[in-house]
Amino acid sequence: MPAQDTGAAQTDWQPSEVQRERDAWRRRQTRRSAAIAATSTIVLLGVVAAFVVTSPGWERVKETYFDWDKAVDSFPAVLEGLWLNIRVMVVCAIVIVILSLTIAVMRTVRGPVAFPLRLLGTVYVDVFRGLPLLLVLFLLGFGGPALDLTGLPTSALFWGCAALVLSYSAYVAEVFRAGIESVHPSQRLAGRSLGLSYAQTLRHVVLPQAWRRVLPPLMNDLVSLQKDSGLIAVLGVIDAIRAAQIETARDFNYTPYVVAGFLFICLTIPMARLTDRYARKQGFHGAGGML
C-alpha cells in the first residue's frame, strides 16, 4: 500500500461501537469513584469538625491556638525564621551527601589493607545511629563552643548544623551502601575487564546505577531533614520554631506554633509528593533493586 494511502487510513480510523461503549463505561466508573471518594471525605471531615467544635473546651482552644489576629502579627517573624531553616537544610543536605557517600565507599572497599577504613566507617555509623539527634544537638551545641577549637566557629548555629550533618550522614551512608552493594558484581567485573581501575569502575559504572536506585529514599531523608532542621531551636537559634516561641511568650497565646507548623507543612508536602511521584515512576519502569 502506498505511504499516502496508509496515512489516510490511519486518519480515517474510528473506534468501534464496542470500544466507544467501553470507554464511556470507564468514564462513568471514574466519575462515580471520584464522587464517592469526595462524598466520603466530606462526611468524615464534617464528623470530625462537628466533634471538635462541640467539645466543651473548643472556645478556649480556639482562642489560644487559632487567633487570627495573633497569627497575622506573628507571621513575619516566623516566616523569617523559616528562611533560616531552609538555608540550614540546603547547606546540611549538600554536606550530608558528600560525607555519607564517602563513608559508604569506605565501608564497601574490599581487601585487608582497607580494614581500618571499613572499621572507622562502621564505628561512625553505629555511634551516630545509636544516639538520638536531640542528644547530639545538646552535646555538640553546648560542648562544641566550650572546646574553643582554633579555626572553628563557636556559634550555636554552626554546631547545630554539625549535629544534623553527623546524625543524618550515618543514616544516609547506609542508604548509599545498600545502593552500591545492590549493583551486581558482574558490573564491576565488566568495568575492570575494560581496563578501568577500581576508582574508575566505582565512579563510572557502580555509582551511577546506585544513585538511581537510592534516590527515592534519599528524597525521603531530605523531607525528614526539612522538619528536623527546626530542632536547632533548642540551642537558642532563632529559626521558625524559636521565633514562634518568642511570639508565644508575649501573651501565652500558642497561635504562632500553629503558624510555624503550617509553614513547615507547606514546605514538606510538595517535596513528599515529588518523592512519591518519582518512586512510582521508578517502579513503573522496573528499576529493579529500588530500595
Please characterize this protein's 3D structure.
With 291 residues, the chain is mostly helical. Helices cover 81% and strands 0% of the residues.
Brief digest:
With 291 residues, this protein is mainly alpha-helical.
Topology record:
Elements: H1 3-11, H2 17-53, H3 58-65, H4 68-108, H5 115-130, H6 133-147, H7 156-182, H8 185-193, H9 198-228, H10 240-251, H11 255-284
Keywords summarizing the entry:
291 residues; mainly alpha; MetI-like fold; 2 domains
Give the overall form: flat
**Rounded Rg:** 27 Å
Number of strands: 0
Task: Tell me the span between the first and last alpha carbons.
Answer: 50 Å
What is the average per-residue confidence, as pLDDT, rounded to a whole number? 85
- Please state the oligomeric state of the protein chains shown: single chain
The CATH H-level superfamily of the largest domain is MetI-like
**H/E element order:** HHHHHHHHHHH
The percent range for strand residues is: under 5%
* CATH fold type of the largest domain: MetI-like fold
**Overall number of structural domains:** 2
Biggest β-sheet strands, sense, barrel: none
- The assigned structural class equals mainly alpha
Helix content: over 70%
